[in-house]
Specification:
disordered N terminus, Cathepsin D, subunit A, domain 1, binds 2-acetamido-2-deoxy-beta-D-glucopyranose, globular, Peptidase A1 domain-containing protein, hydrolase, 2 domains, alpha+beta, six-stranded mixed beta barrel
């Protein structure tokens, strides 16, 4: 018996690893909606829903409502044995893994005939099948294009059956829980295998997900903010001793208007010495929920605010968000003007905006125009200036340091020591 245990320990050691998994850059959903002329309507629905939620009439929303409308990086994972592959957002701003179930979109409720499902706003709260909500005239099924998990085909699947529901700004993902072996990395890519992972199998997705270039979400933040208190996949890997070090490093490539091109690398279990310089500093987390810590100042050009805030490092948000008054100061120093149709600041593409300077600990991290001026893709010469007004309503962090910051500085997420490290990204 004890010899078996020792052998198992040795085997576990031999297999604990550093695994580098590539990402794919896809067109951001926001840019696609802007191009299709549906973004203004989308923002309106979202605002209404937010008001509704804040009046306390809806199911609780335990997290910052992250909508992924601006998300542009996805990676492959697999679930089950044999492996079934999914494209997911690898999101440090949430903590649950879910993918569509084989039954997703096949529920018998008829959207048209149930009056609770006819109003686009109330639908999200009252209609049993969220897939009806926001459905356009040619609506088919929000899971139609998504890969779906078929548990009957997996030898390692363990039924759980408990319900789950995760709320987003414009609807929800809901279904039931299951357990299986998952891998970070797809078939034919380097893989980190994590047995016994509990995850959501969505049977219904808000219409918002229809046609998105992603199947699901994999949250990389802490268990404390996980819906149903499920141990998140990377923490599960650390707990099982499957990685060299309890860290993962995120390297994101510059955003361009290309679609379907390599987008960066996630390194599980170690530093990324290929794409990132040495770690300049680690910042202790103030709260191990999100990767939340203190930012002491932010500015651009002649503007600077040193008020000090709680911030999070969030790969699932493609801009930098903060309080409107300070964002407005930064934007005017950059010569950007607010476009209320799109809900973002715009600058003419090619504008040399000043760096956005972020003070964390005793270091100043400067994010330059290659990362803060983002093509909009609407045919105009307008680009998005990557700082947007974000209202935390007094809860949680005041700022979100999203992809522009992470493209400039690789972020090292250390789950055991509860800190985030920053290293220069070595890309040109
Ligand atoms: C993911 O899998 C798809 C399909 O097999 C493949 O085309 C793609 O290159 C893989 N990698 C990424 C990062 O998407
Ligand atoms: C719905 O489908 C019809 C027929 O295929 C097409 O003419 C129309 O443009 C579509 N409407 C939308 C909003 O996509
Ligand atoms: C926002 O920008 C678009 C062009 O990119 C323009 O058509 C629209 O009128 C602008 N809206 C406002 C409120 O400025």
């Amino acid at each position: 018996m004890s010899r078996t245990l020792i052998l198992l320990a040795l085997v576990a050691c031999a297999y604990s690893a550093v695994v580098q998994v590539p990402l794919l850059k896809v067109e951001s959903i926001r840019n696609r909606m802007i191009r299709q002329g549906t973004y203004a309507e989308y923002l309106k629905t979202k605002e209404l829903r937010r008001l509704y939620i804040n009046r306390g009439e809806a199911a609780t929303v335990g997290q910052i409502v992250s909508d992924y409308e601006d998300e542009a990086y996805v990676g492959n994972i697999t679930i089950g044995n044999p492996q079934q592959q999914f494209k997911v957002i690898l999101d440090t701003g949430s903590s649950n893994l879910w993918i569509p179930d084989i039954t997703c979109g096949t529920k018998p409720i008829n959207c048209q005939s149930d009056p609770k499902c006819s109003s686009s706003l109330l639908c999200q709260f009252e209609c049993e099948d969220q897939a009806c909500c926001g459905a356009g005239p040619n609506y088919t099924d929000s899971c139609l294009l998504q890969a779906k998990f078929d548990s009957s085909k997996s030898k390692t699947y363990v039924a759980n059956g408990q319900n789950f529901i995760i709320e987003y700004g414009t609807g929800s993902a809901r279904g039931f829980l299951g357990q299986d072996t998952i891998t970070f990395g797809g078939v034919g890519e380097p893989q980190l295998t994590v047995p016994n992972q509990v995850f959501g199998q969505a049977t219904s997705l808000a219409a918002f997900f229809e046609g998105q270039p992603l199947d699901g979400i994999l949250g990389l933040a802490f268990k404390s903010i996980a819906v149903d208190q499920i141990t998140p996949p990377f923490i599960n890997a650390v707990n099982q001793g499957l990685v060299d070090q309890p860290i993962f490093t995120v390297f994101l490539e510059h955003e361009g208007d290309q679609n379907g091109v390599p987008g960066g690398v996630y390194t599980y279990g170690g530093l990324d010495t290929t794409n990132c310089g040495p770690v300049l500093a680690y910042q202790q987390l103030s709260s191990a929920t999100y990767y939340q810590f203190k930012m002491s100042a932010i500015g651009a050009g002649s503007y600077k605010s040193t008020k000090g805030w709680q911030v999070i490092s969030d790969t699932g948000t493609s801009l930098i968000g903060g309080p409107a008054s300070i964002v407005s100061g930064i934007a005017s120093a950059a010569g950007a003007t607010y476009n209320s149709t799109y809900g973002v600041y715009l600058v003419p593409c090619g504008t040399k905006v000043p760096t956005v300077d972020i003070t964390i600990g005793s270091n100043v991290y400067s994010v330059d125009s290659s990362n803060t001026v983002i093509p909009l893709g609407d045919g105009s010469n307008n680009c998005i200036f990557a700082v947007f007004p974000f209202n935390s309503f007094g809860f949680g962090p005041s700022w979100i340091l999203g992809d522009p910051f992470i493209r400039q500085y690789c972020n090292v997420y250390d789950v055991t020591n509860q800190r985030v490290g920053f290293a220069k990204s070595l890309q040109k």
